[in-house]
């Protein structure tokens, strides 16, 4: 591995081979201060295997009236690899909107993932996607949301505030 991977995006190094895996360290916003974990992307034939493991998800709260439930949690790739907290009441806005390179509706963005199910704060899952390879997502961000994704509302599934963020790096 090139020793400066963590200081500059990989494409700054001409002639470097494309990475075959990628990794994001997740940390929580003020809305989920104990949230931490990782997402690992591993290229496999025809796509990538995505594995996520986090602890510290907030306690489940059922929907009431027009207020969305807390959990299961919307889980996506967003455009910008910037996890600055910003406004603590509406964190991680620097990560931008959903990564949407093919101008698709929400529900069919390459980084629209299954929701994360919390088990008393712990979640783990793995799934296959054919929508990208690791090299395509370096420098973007993983976002975990407070509320579920409805896979229908535009542009981001009405998944509410951002409770976790991680920059995706070559690995
Ligand atoms: Cu999102």
From TrEMBL:
Q: Looking at the record's lineage, which domain of life comes first?
A: Bacteria
Give the catalysed reaction(s), semicolon-separated: 2 superoxide + 2 H(+) = H2O2 + O2
Coiled-coil regions in this chain? Answer: none
E.C. designation(s): 1.15.1.1
Cofactor binding, note field: Binds 1 copper ion per subunit. Binds 1 zinc ion per subunit.
InterPro entries from the UniProt entry: SOD-like_Cu/Zn_dom_sf, SOD_Cu/Zn_/chaperone, SOD_Cu/Zn_BS, SOD_Cu_Zn_dom
- Superoxide dismutase copper/zinc binding domain span: 36-168
> What keywords were assigned to this record?
Copper, Metal-binding, Oxidoreductase, Zinc
SUPFAM superfamilies with a match to the protein in the record: Cu,Zn superoxide dismutase-like (SSF49329)
Q: Which Pfam families match?
A: Sod_Cu (PF00080)
Function, please? Answer: Destroys radicals which are normally produced within the cells and which are toxic to biological systems. May play a role in favoring mycobacterial survival in phagocytes.
Family of the protein in this entry:
Belongs to the Cu-Zn superoxide dismutase family.
What is the protein's name according to its record?
Superoxide dismutase [Cu-Zn]
